[in-house]
Every structure is written in C-alpha cells, then in structure tokens.
Amino acid sequence: MASRLQDALADNAQIWGGWVVGxxxxxxxxxxxxxxxxxxxxxxxxxxxxxxxxxxxRRLEHVPIATVVRLPxxxxxxxxxxxxxxxxxxxxxxxxxxxxxxxxxxxxxxxPGGVRSFGPLxxxxxxxxxxxQARASVFAMVxxxxxxxxxxxxxxxxxxxxxxxxxxxxxxxxxxxxxxxWTRPDVLNAMQHLQRxxxxxxxxxxxxxxxxxxxxxxxxKGFQMITLASESQALRRGAAAHLAEATGQSVAPGQQRYC
Length: 259
What we know:
259 residues, alpha/beta, metal-binding, HpcH-HpaI_aldolase, lyase
C-alpha cells in the first residue's frame, strides 16, 4: 500500500509542502485546503513531541494531504512511534555519514532488515509488516560541511528515499550566516551538488525553501520536494496583508523562519 507521499511524488514533478512547528489543529488542514501536497511536523525545532504529532496525524487521517515528521536523530523509538501513528515519512536531521543514514533506514524497517518494533496505532494502516515498512519513506537531512563531504556514501545507503537539504545550517557550517544561504555562491553550489548527486543516485531531492519565490527557483534547479512556509510564516504574511489593506499601508517584509 503506497502512502499519500509516495503517490504525490509519483504523480508530480514537484510537490509543495507546509511546515508545522506548534500543536495547531488548524494549520495542517489549512495547508491541505490551500492545495499543498504535504505538511511537515517539526519535532526537532518546533514545540511538538512525537505524542503531539500522533494526535495531529490522527486528525488528518481523512484530510487529503501527505505527512512527514522531522526528528532530531536516529533514535528508533520516536521514529517508530510517528510511523505507527500514520506518518508517511520521516526526515532525520543533521545526517553526516552513511552510518547515520543506514541507522535511520533501519529504524523504519522490521527485523531482520531493521530494528523497528511492531505496533501500528491506526487501524487503517493494516497489520502486514511488509506493507507498513514499504509505505515508510525516510529522508536524510544533509545540512553540514561533513554531510556535504559524505554525500556520495550517504546516497549509496540501501532503502533511503531521498536527501533533504537544510540551507540555514549548511550556510552556517560553511562559515556564513543563516540568512546568507540564498546569496552566497558557495552555499548555492553546495545545494546544487547535493541535488545532482542525490538525483543521479535515483533519490528524491527535497529542500526547505522558506518562501514561494525561492521554492520556484529550487524547482527550476531540479528539487522535487519543496517546503515553502511554516504555519507561523503563513499566519504572519496573511495577517500583515489584512492590516495593510485596512490601513492603506504597504506590507512590511515578515521575519523568515530558517530551517
């Protein structure tokens, strides 16, 4: 049984995502209503636990949007819990080696191929282990100079679905500020190298773009899975536009969220 995320990637050259950093029940549904393909839940930097995410995922069971969860490491327990709750995939932050990428994959697979413990929480997922692990996508988030140097080895890890680029940490790791991710040629070249290497290996290429304009530019560079904005960014932009309309003032640029 394919997941919504797998179906969306199979049907579209690019898929577009929103991001959720807090325990909101409205954000994911609004992203779905706006036509986004997927929503990401942030357990690394957001104000969410894997238990919070499980409740949000259950609410989305009948909402037509795919789901991914970003987790801070390769600990098998939280990875298994969000998959058991119905997440279509996981994004594992700060992957810097093939060994870390392999551990992430193992956390999504049952024995003998992995270390995931059996315990599906949603009846609609069924109970067949092979089907449950087949629908679980796993992305290695590459966002450091070490990860950049190891990208060839990371992309050779069997079972990995894709590479997801984190521009802000990548910029910091290369000696720049997070807001310079989109202006420094060495950072842009690094992102393109990650994309080309992953694509050549037959992997999905994803990136945190932060805005629609940057998202369009990343699509032109070949990225397939592009996160555009968090729910806080979308709320701030919409609120600012409404206030500007009411007061006759221009909309001031909103603060970006860099991930």
